[in-house]
Amino acid sequence: MMLIGARDPATMNAAQRALYDRIASGPRGDVPKPFLAMLDAPDIADAIQAVGAAIRFGGALPDDRREVAILAAAAAYGSGYEWDYHLPIARRLGVSQAVITAARSGDIRPLEGAEPPEMAAIIGFCRAAIADNKADPVHLAMLGASLGRAGASEVVAIAGYYPLLALFLAAAGLDHPVGG
To answer: For the whole model, what pTM was predicted?
Structure first.
């Protein structure tokens, strides 16, 4: 049972359908489930999806680093949908299996000396931000040094944005645990 959101475009009201069509015709090429979950509040959904578009399709963060941050946030929150959605993107961008494993587990020790140091910092920051509800200054300083302040700020945004999507997914009954 879906307590919030809308799945079937044929049953959407005019505001829901307009936003659905706008998202589908944008850079995503479809309407991912988090946005279906938000459609009962089209103005809020539109603002949230605009933030997501800025994160995914703009900004200073290199694509592979962005996807590592998203995977780390998805795993830390336990969002299987976000993990499954972004894992193939990360792989297409050449993110190593070691980094993917670390993003999932939170254990960044195997990355030391084997991967660019910002990968461990991204994972460490996102996981700690979600688990502890605070910005770890050590990882944040490392992010600023390697990715610049704009890149570090985008990692902070990802650590807050993807749990928001995951909460909508959970509320709408559209999420699942990160797989085994």
So the answer is: 0.95
Q: Give the residue ranges of the chain where pLDDT is below 50.
A: none
d(CA 87, CA 71): 7
Q: Give the ranges where 25-172 is alpha helix by DSSP (H).
A: 33-38, 42-57, 63-77, 80-92, 97-105, 117-132, 137-171
pLDDT single digits (tens) 83-120: 999 999 999 999 999 999 999 999 999 999 989 999 99
Tokens of 39: 């459609």
∠ CA(30), CA(73), CA(64), 5° rounding? 70
| DSSP summary character for residue 120 | H
Tell me the HSE value of 61 on the side-chain side, using a 13 A CA sphere: 27
Short-list 61, 62, 65, 85, CA closest to 75: 85
Query: Which long-range contacts does 1-5 make (Cβ < 8 Å, 24+ apart)?
Result: 1/173, 2/172, 2/173, 2/174, 3/171, 3/172, 3/173, 4/37, 4/38, 4/40, 4/168, 4/171, 4/172, 5/36, 5/37, 5/38, 5/39, 5/40, 5/168, 5/171, 5/172, 5/174
Please tell me the predicted confidence (pLDDT) of residue 2: 66
